[in-house]
Specification:
The complex is a heterotrimer. By secondary structure, chain A is an all-alpha fold. Chain A has a domain at 37-57 and 89-235 and 264-284: MetI-like fold (Orthogonal Bundle). In chain A, 73% of the residues lie in helices and 0% in strands. Chain A has 11 helices and no strands. Chain A has helices at residues 12-24, 26-43, 45-48, 80-116, 118-133, 136-147, 151-178, 181-188, 193-229, 241-249, 257-284. Mean pLDDT of chain B is 90; it is low at 1-21. The chains are: A mainly alpha, B alpha+beta, C mainly alpha. Chains in contact: A-B, A-C, B-C.
Amino acid sequence: MTDTAAAPPEVTTARKSRLHLALRKPGFLVGATIIGMSILFAVMPGIFAPYDPNFIDYTAVRQAPSWEHPFGTDMLGRDSLSRVIHAYTVNMQMAVLATVFALTIGVTVGALVGYYRGVADMIFGRVVDAIITFPFLVLVIAVVAVLGPGLINMYIAITVVGWVYYARLMRAEVIAQMGNDYASAGIVMGYSDRRIIFRHLLPNAITPVVVYWMTDMALAILLGSSLGYLGLGAQPPQAEWGVLIAEGRNFITTAWWLSLMPGIAIVLTGLGFSLIGDGLADLLRPRG
Amino acid sequence: MKRNLTAATLMLAMAVGTPSFGQERGGTMNFARYDGSRLIDPIYADRNPDIWMVGSLFDTLLRSSDDGKSIVGGLADSFTVSDDGRTVTLNLQADLKFADGSSLDAEDVLFSLDRARNPDLGPWAGMLGNVADVTADGNTITLSLSQPDPTILSMLATFNTAIVNKDVFDAAEGATDQEKSAAIFAAGGAGVGSGSFYLCGFEQGASMDFCANEHHWEMGADGKPLPYLDKVHFEIIPDDATRILKLQAGEVDAVEFVPFSRVAELDADPQINMNLYPSTRIIYSPINARETRADGSANPLHDVRVRQAINYATNKEALIGLILQGAGQPMRAPLMSSSTRLAADMDLYPFDMEKAKALIEDAGFEAGTTITLTTLAGSADDATIFAALQQMWAPLGIDLVVEQVDGATRGAKNRSGEFDIHTYGWVDDVNDPSQVTGWLGYTPVRHAVGTGWESARFNELFEASGSEMDQAKRAEQYAEMQEIYAEAAPLLFMYETPFAVAVSTAIDGYVQTPLGANIFSRATVSR
Amino acid sequence: MAGLQYILKRLALMIPTFLLVMIIIFLLVRMLPGDPALAIAGDKASDADLAAIRNRLGLNEPLLVQFWLFFTNVLQGDLGRSILMRTSVMGVIIERLPTTVFLAAFAVSLSLLIAGPLAFVAALNRGRWPDTVIRTVFQVGLSMPVFYIGLILLTFLAAHLRWFPVGGHGDGFTGQLYYLFLPSMTVALYTSAIIMRNLRAAIIEVLDAEYVQFARAKGLPNRLILGRHVLRNALISTVTLLGLSIGNLMSGTLVTETVFAVPGLGRLMLEAIFARDYPLIQGLTLTFAVLVSIVFLLTDLFQSLLDPRMRLS
């Protein structure tokens, strides 16, 4: 995919100066701020949420936004703002845990088969094709149905399917990098495979993977929300944005705030990840 | 109430004002369904979207009266049960026709009833298990029973005994009856049934059309055959919110299964009549009453006092407020909806936290014990039930956790006993309480809906009532069964809900019966 | 000639893929709790009824026997009978396939129409406000769950403004265009966001590349550079991405078809899973696999056409 000319084998020094550059970019800064706040909400939601997110008040159901309840209350009289904030814990966890294992496995497998090719690559090709030809959601739904609903099983299901995308991307990048002079130079100079893979190929090939990872984290939140909507993700009474939106769906004309607020939270977080991704793309992109 | 009064006044005004009764005729009613029919055949209909449409295409020999309390004539205009309860004699109306104009006679009745009671064919044959023989002499049909059966007339008014055309089945392609039935349904057309409509269009999973049967025997107010409509067009819209938007946009005339959270909003719309039809639908949760759980650990719910305690600790009125927005009532008869014949009227476990706490203490229940509520994934109602019960039962020291599964998994768990408590619901298929009573309490049917609860006395009463022709005695048996059941509490008794159907004001006369059947024969449309 | 050989080789490689898909789905559906007998007979059926149905469906046979039957039937082009629909799986799929293909193709076309021009605008204005606005708007589209955005479109464009019908499907090409616009748009909002991001990055990459800088320095007109280098590279990367996301696109139709009441394969798949309709799930999965494989093959051919260096991969 990349059309760039031979990239330099050592990139560390160039990177530092670019970090300053990235930090001065408004987009990256905004993204970092959003995600920083999100992490803060996720780690200590109790500090920011005004009420217990699971406290039911039969006498105050579906109240419109007010000073007392800035996002209104839901059909059980629970404070919507508190539920949206507490949902950060599970949704941010989703973003990380649903992708990080897929990333690790995918990068490792992709780099290895891309470097060694041969029989392993053939088998890899078939497995990838088989998994990719499945509709993603169907496979995840089926795996969750077999393992039972719940977040951990959902992460397993998403990882089982998701690693393939990283592996494909990584393999393609490694193969592209292999075509470059420095890689062949490394082989000629008799460097060990490990040194070539990890010191030379990986750092140069990882950029699109990391950028994809940022997008994937946003997608993981979305996928987790879809599964939550189907009842296969986060389990009640745990607040989760997808579940909150699904709950509010039926009240879209009468109590619009129920679905709008978690909707804004999803969009903001997605925006944050994507801005960071763009910033990283600039930061990591090898330049001549 | 007010609406009914207005309608009656209007009808009166019309009757007085016009010399010949002016009945609106013709037109198409567009109806949005939550799920589509797959095969509408009296004996193979096994899902509600099929069962509830059988009556529109196929007539039965007898019918339930409008109030559901008695049996009246249908294709048969008179019927008698012998004193010993072993013989039923029916007289078929003269000159009956199928929708294509071919004649409906005793031969078709014999064929249809033989199909209906053949255990190798449909799933409902067991309901006619007491029928030993059916014979015909001219228009007189005689059923001989192996033992007296108080439900037999109800069965002859139930969808599975509806009459089909023997000639059409004889001529249909297919090696087995089921293949023939599928072929007939796929081809559509007027020949097979004698209901007020016939199937004249079908797109799997998308749409379906019923056209008026001009040969129907039942007459409308204007002295011409029912139905008044030319056609009913069905569209399948599985998503609740989309279905309602379709009505609000004026693209359909009626929408079934309106979520109760939307009822008030639709009721306020002047273009829409928000109907809550009384139903036999009950929402309850079976409690695993076995000594041990499926994994072998001790089951705290085996203790009847714990089961009673959670019933007392459940504030049904609050649940009804949260989930049904008030459109429902707590279960009052333990084994059935209170609109069913022979239903008891009890104050079934009124909300009483003190009593609940006393019972739970008496039972020596260990505080902090985890109990799992299995719910239907993706169901907003179930999620609300869980959240509410978790809070309601917390004072008892119950740590309620949830397990969300799909319908098939829940069904499998119910059978294998791998659950503590799970949400469930029921609608009667037969206008007689025996079906639901067998389902909920009689061990041989389904181990008391999978709870594993068993009472020898209950089983004995149920068996005895199966051939009890004395109505008073049968009522006594049912009263005792309900007392036993209420005391043992194998269920979390929850609530009864109506069928919520939103209908455009352009439509008049559509009803859904307490058994769920959609009745279009007297519906009219005026645009 | 080399091209033909390549295609034949690719087709040969599909055989083990399909075999793997068949094995995975066969085992996966049988691991699901509950079984089709329960779905057929319903909760009200007795245990004996269920056992009889299981027997009739051949579910009591050893797994290997069941798989062999499935495998040999597929080889003969027979996908079995749907338990849910009571007709042949092939028939149901053929009936519904055009709608889903139409929806997917419509969505892809809309995505390209939306994302293509805007990606160029964003890339050429990199870092300035048009870039920021375009990317933010697309990010919103990318972050909205389908079941939510679909409902919003339905509520405002269909129910209130009456510009479009509320769900369902039309007859003929124009009917389908009219009925499937909103569902396609819903899918397209998501797909176009991904395409836009990728395309923008690809264009920027080319613009920054040495040979383009060189061409610029040599004084080649911008239009020519865009046309010759940028467009070609942008096309390659977009086609690659579209090919890759075809699986996601199919997943997207699952929920979209439910929300918009479109009788397509996606909704059928959900119903089949919930009803444990083994033959239908297997048949649909194979259909998806074939569709996706065809798209992959076309993607590769297209790529090698545009970029001769890719031919060997």
